[in-house]
């Protein structure tokens, strides 16, 4: 897959492209609804002998147009989104750098400069897709603004238990810690990427060494608590338990949150390693214990709960 980054109003250096069937959207999460849109573009392209493409943008508009209180935490990092789209077999991924100038582009100018200019012959979009200044352009106006330069296919909503499969719905489950529902919406378990950093190394003194994960600040974390997780280190997956929180037993006044993973049957030194953390189920909420002995007993119970979960589900 060729990734083409576009800095509006860059002219793409007059590069010419073959006929492309283009899927449109931000595609945070690349969930099952997104996969339906992208898959349709891929199928149409294969059927006609054209190239397939995805047109998206980065960063999320809330980063550029909102303040900190309105910023939306993402389900997928930039790198993860690229990887998931590539798995779907697309030929091109066009990523427009989202700026205030780009946000003010009129809908018809967006079509002229980013669809007609890229030699798009067929557009595929979800029923709720919007584009252009104040989101005035909709899935229904694409054909009108295209002026017969391309055909359009509009994909109806994908539902789960009567609700639209959406990034918003997925975020709501993550924020409640309901990780077990995520695969039915994403088509995979929710995961984040991060780097293993040094912590206070207290876990090793009580028999449960942990890897402290520093994740992307723009990625969504589930609420404080203990989770059954899998962690990918150097290409291999390992089972474990993860604590998200402030470690109140040792640091009752701490407010900074950490993500710590105890990896089962693992003794490698991995400081500085890039890892992927996959969330399966929430075991319990975080709590303050009366002492180390009580904490160790609970961690052992959490570990056995996770081991039994993975035994039954993987």
Summarize the structure.
This protein is an alpha/beta fold. Helices cover 28% and strands 30% of the residues.
Notable characteristics:
314 residues; 2 domains; Rossmann fold; six-stranded parallel sheet; six-stranded antiparallel beta barrel; alpha/beta; Elongation Factor Tu (Ef-tu), domain 3
Structure, described:
The chain has 314 residues and is an alpha/beta fold. The protein folds into 2 domains: 2-163, 3-Layer(aba) Sandwich (Rossmann fold), CATH 3.40.50.620; 189-313, Beta Barrel (Elongation Factor Tu (Ef-tu), domain 3). Helices cover 28% and strands 30% of the residues. The protein has helices at residues 32-48, 61-65, 78-87, 100-103, 107-116, 142-146, 167-176, 183-186, 292-313, and strands at 2-6, 20-24, 51-58, 92-97, 120-126, 130-131, 137-138, 151-155, 159-160, 163-164, 190-197, 211-215, 225-233, 236-245, 258-263, 274-284. The strands form 4 sheets. The chain has a 6-stranded parallel sheet with strand order 1-4-3-2-5-8. The chain has a 6-stranded antiparallel beta barrel with strand order 11-12-15-14-13-16. Strands 6-7 form a two-stranded antiparallel ribbon. Strand 9 and strand 10 (163-164) form a beta hairpin. It is elongated. The two termini are 31 Å apart. The mean pLDDT is 90.
Q: What topology does this entry show?
A:
Blueprint (H helix, E strand, L loop, with lengths): L1 E5 L13 E5 L7 H17 L2 E8 L2 H5 L12 H10 L4 E6 L2 H4 L3 H10 L3 E7 L3 E2 L5 E2 L3 H5 L4 E5 L3 E2 L2 E2 L2 H10 L6 H4 L3 E8 L13 E5 L9 E9 L2 E10 L12 E6 L10 E11 L7 H22 L1
Parallel strand pairs: 1-4, 2-3, 2-5, 3-4, 5-8
Antiparallel strand pairs: 6-7, 9-10, 11-12, 11-16, 12-15, 13-14, 13-16, 14-15
């Amino acid at each position: 897959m060729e990734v083409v980054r576009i800095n509006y109003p860059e002219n793409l250096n007059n590069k010419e492209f073959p006929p492309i069937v283009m899927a449109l959207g931000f595609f945070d999460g690349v969930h099952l609804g997104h996969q339906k849109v992208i898959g349709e573009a891929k199928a149409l392209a294969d059927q006609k002998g054209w190239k397939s493409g995805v047109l998206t943008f980065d960063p999320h508009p809330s980063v550029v147009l909102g303040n900190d209180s309105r910023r939306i935490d993402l389900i997928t990092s930039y790198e993860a989104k690229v990887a998931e789209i590539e798995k779907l077999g697309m030929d091109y991924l066009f990523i427009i750098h989202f700026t205030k100038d780009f946000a003010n582009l009129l809908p018809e100018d967006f079509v002229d400069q980013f669809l007609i200019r890229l030699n798009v012959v067929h557009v595929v979009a979800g029923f709720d897709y919007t584009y252009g200044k104040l989101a005035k352009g909709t899935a229904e106006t694409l054909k009108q603004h295209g002026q017969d330069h391309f055909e359009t296919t509009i994909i109806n909503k994908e539902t789960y238990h009567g609700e639209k499969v959406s990034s918003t719905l997925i975020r709501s489950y993550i924020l409640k810690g309901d990780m077990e529902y995520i695969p039915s919406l994403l088509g995979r378990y929710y995961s984040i990427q991060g780097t293993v950093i040094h912590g206070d190394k207290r876990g090793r003194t009580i028999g449960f060494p942990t890897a402290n994960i520093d994740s992307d600040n723009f990625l969504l974390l589930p609420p404080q608590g203990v989770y059954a997780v899998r962690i990918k280190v150097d290409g291999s997956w390992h089972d474990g338990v993860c604590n998200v929180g402030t470690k109140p037993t040792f640091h009752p006044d701490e407010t900074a949150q950490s993500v710590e993973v105890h990896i089962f049957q693992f003794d490698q030194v991995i400081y500085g390693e890039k890892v992927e953390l996959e969330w399966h189920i929430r075991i319990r909420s975080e709590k303050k214990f009366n002492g180390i002995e009580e904490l160790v007993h609970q961690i052992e119970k959490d570990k056995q709960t996770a081991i039994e979960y993975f035994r039954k589900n993987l």
